[in-house]
Design brief:
The structure is a homodimer.
Chain A (H helix, E strand, L loop, with lengths): L7 E6 L4 H14 L3 E5 L8 H7 L3 H5 L2 E3 L2 H5 L4 E5 L12 E3 H11 L5 E5 L8 H5 L3 E4 L11 H23 L13 H17 L5 H17 L4 H24 L6 H9 L1
Parallel strand pairs in A: 1-2, 1-6, 2-3, 4-6, 4-7, 5-7
Helix pairs in contact in A: 1-2, 1-7, 5-7, 8-9, 8-10, 10-11
Chain lengths: 269, 269
């Protein structure tokens, strides 16, 4: 069986403290992970605190990639989870879970390509917009009066649960025949498709204002959760194109007051 | 139901780095623990690194007690677990377990009095002798090529599993009637009894040399696991006294060549 832990990426978004970079690298090494990506970091991997905290994880730290935004960090990923101590907001209940619940799901997705856990900056965590770019959300149950974990501690607990899931899957599948990998569209392709879809859904008046954002989030979760294939992403692009054409026709025909549903029905058949 | 998490003590033995004290206090606060004991610490809770890392856990840090040895840290405890990345050595398989396996056991014991998880110093962990003072051993499954976790990360994962066990027990027992606490002899009494027993077993020639240590460890685990009552501890003291008396009789009678088994049998009835 393929070793899936190296396919599980840790993404730190705008980390502030070098010590957290080092501690993250070390604990990744402890649990068998190696793929670290830093999004627009304030702290440097060359800082003495980072190197001191990394100990045997120096190799992970030195191999860390720095990218400008979350999109670049997740570009080739088939599945991603955002971490947050807040559970209110943009997410539907089906896509939120505890670390113990979500790590087996993340690991299963790694069969199909790289996956990622995304951690926000130390002071305030990820924005709703950033959370919305991921397929789901993971929380670590903690005290309600002070639930905010240190960044590297949160990484440690996710890596720990991931390794538990991995150990279990290794024991469960030992001796089972390997299954062929299913193709899943990478994040960058899915994301382009979602943007296309958002544009189209806005143009046709489905998405608007604040409610539009949460509707689009819900759609992203719904589609993302199914791990769409490249072919399915193409199909959704086709849908978006069609909606945009329709919206354009409506605009053109508005003076004529033609019913837009007519145009939509024709193009579907 | 009584809240058991405040009865779960974190014991750090000779911690070297102040940052680890702070990070430990914070993560204890995150998961609802509050009882921190430092055994002969090299690092100070007043160090700037400790206070900076503690954030909202400053209250836990400031309430930490400093004691000279593990015995003092565990004096009132009814159950304790030593942490180690090594699983070879003095312990029998029944008393070793992963954090996920052992934390429910620790929490259940907290019904009867204070319990503790004991963490060794950063460079090398607990000595075999120190591990032997505890009732069992807990490990965190990790990479075989670099399994040694940062001290505060190990604390985080144990506290996390402890809170999981606590959440589960709160959900399981909600609505159930409270059960009266069973009396368990505190560590200091158990330990005195074990020392008495060791002396007696050595005197009667049962324990000797290297093998004697591991035999005594096995006995400690066996008896300790049953959470002996004060009455049972008295009974074991009685046994030790009797064995010593017997050994003494043997020594006295050696010139006469009396069979020692005779004396032992009589005193038992």
């Amino acid at each position: 069986m393929m070793d899936l832990l190296p396919r599980c990426r840790i993404v730190l978004v705008r980390p502030h403290y070098a010590g957290n970079l080092g501690a993250t690298a070390r604990v990744m090494r402890n649990f068998g992970l190696s793929d670290l990506v830093l999004v627009a970091p304030y702290a440097s991997v060359n800082d003495l605190d980072a190197r001191r905290m990394a100990t045997h994880g120096l190799g992970v730290l030195d191999a860390a990639r720095v990218v400008p935004d979350i999109g670049a960090a997740l570009a080739d990923c088939v599945f991603s989870l955002a971490t947050s101590s807040m559970t209110a907001g943009v997410f539907r209940s089906g896509t939120i879970g505890t670390a113990a619940e979500k790590m087996p799901e993340l690991l299963a997705s790694a069969e199909m390509g790289p996956v990622a856990i995304v951690f926000g900056p130390e002071p305030h965590g990820l924005s709703n917009e950033e959370i919305g770019l991921c397929h789901g959300m993971v929380t670590i149950p903690s005290d309600s009066t002070f639930g905010s974990l240190n960044l590297a501690q949160a990484v440690a607990i996710c890596c720990y649960e991931l390794r538990k899931a991995w150990s279990k899957s290794v024991n469960d599948t030992r001796g089972k025949p390997e299954v062929p990998e299913r193709a899943v569209a990478p994040f960058v392709d899915q994301n382009r498709m979602f943007e296309h879809l958002r544009e189209a859904l806005t143009e046709v008046g489905y998405l608007f204002g604040e409610k539009g954002d949460s509707l689009m989030h819900a759609l992203r979760q719904l589609i993302g959760r199914s791990l769409p294939t490249p072919q399915e992403v193409k199909i959704l692009h086709g849908l978006a194109r069609q909606l945009l054409w329709t919206a354009n026709q409506i605009k053109k025909n508005e003076p004529d007051d033609k019913p837009p549903v007519d145009r939509l029905d024709k193009s579907d058949h």
